[in-house]
Amino acid sequence: MREWLALSLGLLGLVSWLTVSGALHRLDLLAQDAAMRLRMLAPNPDIVLIAIDDASVEAIGRWPWRRALHAQAIAQISAQSPRALGLDILFGEPDADYPGDDALLARAIASAGNVVLPVAQRAIHASGGAADAPLPLLRQAAAQLGHVQVQVDPDGAVRHLFAREGPAGGPWPHLSVAMLCAAGTQQPACRGNAAPASGAWLREDLRGTVFTAGRPPFARYSYVDVLKGQLPAGALRGKYVLVGASAVGLGDMFAAPVASRGGRVAGVELLAHALNAELAGAHLRPAGPAVNVLFNLLPVVAALLSLVLLGPLAGLMGCAALALASVLLATLGAPLLGWELSAAPALAGIALAYPLWSWRRLSTAARFLQLQMQALQAQVPLAPQPDGPMVRYGDALERRIAAVEEASGRLQRLHHFVSESLRHLPSPTLVCDAAGRVLLANSAAAQHLALAEEALPGRHIGQLLGDLTEPQTGKALFEPHTAALGLQRPRQEARDARGRDLLVLCQVHGRKAAALGLITLVDLSAIRQAQRQRDQALNFISHDIRAPAASILTLLEMQREFPAQLAPAQLLARIERHAQAALSMAQGFVQLASAQADSYQRAPFDLVALLHEVVDGAWEAAQGCDVRVSLECPHVEALFEGDRNLILRAVGNVLGNALKFSPRGGIAHCTLQRHGDRWRIGVRDEGPGIAPELRARVFEPFMSGGAAGVQAGARRVGGVGLGLAFVDTVVRRHGGSIELESEPGQGAHFMLLLPAARTADDRHA
């Protein structure tokens, strides 16, 4: 940063000096000439040139001509009533050969009343400059005086002029402004035909000339045609007429941007360009030093900032864009703002900024690579060695890059080894920083959290494991958006929102902000499920299975004590009923345990055929209960993939449950419908229904129909409450769900939702 600041100060100082000194002014002039065509004006038809051209010299004779001829020309021009007449001819000395011609010319000028005569700077001394003004006789006859000085730029071309120039006591306006004064337009700079004042030569209000488009841009007539009276009638009426020399070797000729290649422009034509700009109000002024310095410093500052904030390529593109923007602003500044801006110092600063800063950055990078190479070689000595030898040729930077590449490769291979080892751990494992953001995660963690593995890094541990709660207190283990490490016990049990029992192992390495945490989740669900099944089995054996056996023993003991109390047939019937109940309970418990633990034999089958089979199988039980079974199935085929025997038994259990609770003469309704991407098997009875507060518990083991809230008045039915638990287990393990609708006194409607199997057309789609 110190080097960047030093470089910035040096470049900004250089750009400021280049701007103030004008050392690159020639380059700016080239840019201004290129942009000149964007701001060229249309020619004003009221400007007319009377040229003292080669044809006039050939017809009249060698220059200078008698002033009587000029008097005649002024009379001819005045006869057409021009708005103003400007003579770009200096009459500073009396005519020695024809003294009377001076008076004749003065009378013609005075008679016209709107003639403007030129003033120039004749000599420059240490004390000032002398004015080359017209003879007093002619000056007093003229309407206005105007200077015809031009400002020659360093490349020798004329692009600028001073709006006022002359002695400090009374500078004259430019002849173009004096023409407006002679035409009657009020101008603050007009001085009329006042005599030259005293004082040092003064130049004020530098302006850039806005040139006129077209070749030639203005109407032009030959001087000799004016003398002969051959001008078209009304050609000069209401016009601004400028008379001046354009013949070769006669008068002032200047290099200008509008001149043809290798050619020059006559002074009278430059006056016409200046007059056209005055009439159009197109004033172009060079920007002041402060504006130019600011204009050049801003892009250089932006380029330096882009170099330090952006990369090498982006910095290079930024510098190029800033250079182009500077050129465009300087080009468009004249037509849009009326300012001539200097862009060459900014271009020089931008051109120097990139190579200088790149050199310093390259030197720093070389030293950094050397230090990093040494550090990496010392830190990863145990990493696998590369297959090939390190590069030993090239310059110093290339060798250092190769060395760092070798050490970095060793570190990457070590990191890859650790990452792959972590990824293949069987338990979900997360590596977090001190703020709780995940840095690494294995595939087991992604599978456990049901997220893509690449979506885990960067997530907060509180968001991923925010559903973990303590089983006893229900308190969350990880608070969302808070630091997770250092606040957890090394080992603690938890339960997530899906009901899984987990052992959370949290190991912290390092301290404070540099700490890393390793969180491992061990799924205890199978162990806790086995424990619950063991408790259920013990409860079942200790309570439910003992009751029928105790009843049988009681009957046998009563038979021995009181043989005549029960007939043998009654005794056997009661013993058979209790044995059947014990067998049914044992069979239901075995089925439920098998449904919870065993793996399913999945295969595609038709639910329509299965439902018909269930209804046919329940015919005998329906007859015994005096209940009719109705089947509504609009589909010819309903494909499903799963364990057919378990689904058959589950649907049979639901239908059997409906038969038990249906009143005599009632109907058990069975339906099969398509519900989105699922098949819905519905079984509805006309029984007493289930109380609202007990509907959520009907699928729990050992919740029998009577215990589930059957309304009073229904016939008593047996059962230990394992049938619906079996149904719930089978349906959920097949990826389905069960819905229950029931109101007291209006029966119960069980709906089994099973995912429909994909057909061949679906798979191709």
Report on the structure:
The radius of gyration is 55 Å and the shape is elongated. Helices cover 44% and strands 19% of the residues. Strands 1, 2, 3, 4, 5, 10 and 11 form a seven-stranded mixed beta sheet that branches. Strands 17-16-20-19-18 form a five-stranded antiparallel beta sheet. The two termini are 60 Å apart. The protein is of the alpha/beta class and 765 residues long. The chain has 23 helices and 27 strands.
Overview features:
765 residues; alpha/beta; 7-stranded mixed sheet; 5-stranded antiparallel sheet; 23 helices
Low-confidence stretches: 705-720, 760-765
* Main sheet record: 7 strands, mixed
Strand % is 15-25%
Oligomer: single chain
Gap from first CA to last CA = 60 Å
Rounded Rg: 55 Å
How many helices? 23
Estimate percent helicity: 40-55%
Judging from the principal axes of the Cα atoms, what is the shape?
elongated
- Structural class call reads alpha/beta
Q: Provide mean pLDDT, rounded.
A: 79
Q: How many beta strands in the DSSP annotation?
A: 27
